[in-house]
Amino acid sequence: MSTNQSCAEPLAKDLALQIDQxxxxxxxxxxxxxxxxxxxxEVVPKHYLPENVVTYISKxxxxxxxxxxxxxxxxxxxxxxxxxxxxxxxxxxxVCQVAKNEALKDAISDLLGIKAGQATPDGKxxxxxxxCFGACDVAPAxxxxxxxxxxxxxxxxxxxxxxxxx
Amino acid sequence: xxxxxSFITENFDRYDPNSIxxxxxxxxxxxxxxxxxxxxxxxxxxIKAASIKGRGGAAYDTGKKWEQAAAVPGLNKVVVCNADExxxxxxxxxxxxxxxxxRLIEGLIIAGYAVGAQNGYIYMREEYxxxxxxxxxxxxxxxxxxxxxxxxxxxxxxFNIHLYSGAGAYVCGExxxxxxxxxxxxxxxxxxxxFTKECGLFDLPTLLNNVETxxxxxxxxxxxxxxxxxxxxxDSKGTKMICLxxxxxxxxxxxxxxxxxxREIIYExxxxxxxxxxFNFVQLGGASGKIAPASLLDTPYTYEDLAKAGLSVxxxxxxxxxxxxSVIDFLQAVQHFFIDESCGKCTPCREGNSQIAYIIAKIKDxxxxxxxxxxxxxxxxxxxxxxxxxxxxxxxxxxxSAMKHFPEEFxxxxxxG
Lengths: 166, 417
Description:
The complex is a heterodimer.
Chain A: H1 3-7, H2 13-25, H3 33-43, H4 51-61, H5 65-74, E1 86-91, H6 94-98, H7 102-112, E2 118-119, E3 125-130, E4 142-144, E5 147-149, H8 155-163
Parallel strand pairs in A: 1-3
Antiparallel strand pairs in A: 1-4, 2-3, 4-5
Helix pairs in contact in A: 2-3
Chain B: H1 20-25, H2 30-35, H3 40-49, H4 62-71, E1 78-83, H5 92-99, H6 101-115, E2 119-124, H7 132-144, E3 160-165, H8 175-181, E4 206-210, H9 211-223, H10 225-229, E5 239-246, E6 252-257, H11 262-269, E7 279-284, E8 291-293, H12 303-308, E9 317-322, H13 327-341, H14 347-364, H15 370-386, H16 390-394, H17 397-405
Parallel strand pairs in B: 1-2, 1-4, 2-3, 5-9
Antiparallel strand pairs in B: 5-6, 7-8, 7-9
Helix pairs in contact in B: 3-4, 3-6, 5-6, 6-9, 13-14, 14-15
């Protein structure tokens, strides 16, 4: 990542206002960094933390950029990569594997034409495999922008769920 | 007679978790009202008499923990609710958060009162983000009704609760990692001492309790110890929330009295193995738990009987696995999880998990040699004794129990020459 490039890319005004509001919600308290980054990521298009956004937060919180990046790269829920409008997280932990999530992986990849770590060309869907998110009672399961969809044992069920995210 | 009971879960589906009025209608906040008329010593004695063991997985005696926290000197103390339930096959805390948030709040208030804290915190995993509005609303409503804030119910006790979020890191369930995460840092565990009870969140004395632990504590204060210990056995008193999942007909979170056998839990409560397949093994207590073969199914679900059988309660997970998943495939999934979730700070855990995965892959491919099994055992024992935190120490549990109960699955080539 190049710092020069991000300086040349100013923050859109309405996004800056949204971030200001989030920072105010946490009284600009740098102890709340994890919450702040999660909330900001939710309002940034494609659900990620671009460099100009991180730089802005760093200045506002008076916290070194290196510290913020160490936090972002530590946590699985925070991303420095642009994702998509809809972030699809497929649980790849024990219970979902025992529930044969291989078929679910294939179904999603076939329907959307993407593998884990990729976005569809129209920027609508992003697919990633995650650790257990506690939906083991409805395994195999996915989350789309945080909402759990479970018991996805047939291609039809997967189609039904994806149809809700147009 | 149904095998499940409802003591911790008694309020589930009996009120609208979005409405404090509906909670008050069913007798909500009786526990807090009662606690505030009791002395700190009386409350701690009750919790001790109920012998509630920590429900996050470590099974430390809650009464003792509260007693120690109360005795730690310091004018400013905090209580943290660990709602970072990250063990695979564990979703009981999610059920409490979603269906009875007010009882959890009562538990936190009582804990705060008992140890002399001014502030309480709920650290909830990012994966339960959809529950944030519900919990926030519950906290605001409790404050509006005077159960939180200054001089609660006209007493000298003032207490506030704050909601913090995790961001997808299993290791943050570990106490020192959790408080780091709550201070805006990466959640890597540190060496102890100092223990969090003396130096935790914001370097203050910190009492850290799991969601279920706090819910049980509130229920015990509300109904009295006798009501609770009529369930269970002499050495494992009361009830426990369990999570049934995997190849079982009726997956879900249930409350059981201690003392049922694993077979009763899996076959009578869980309805047995799905699709009439054959039982292979069950992993108890999450990914860091041990696996039990069919020969151990008549073991009673109590702390002492499980310990005798080399098993443990852990988080309360019951991951039932049928014969379509082999032991080796399962261990690969376990390693996959721990490689992902190891924070990488200490060498035994970071390297051990990868090396174990490497040898398991060799076994699967039929390329392992006799010496590999020795290395596997050495690595596992090294991780158990030398890892910095519970994650690395417990990661080889599934492997070691599998080697004990399913030696035939660890096929090796005979040594050439």
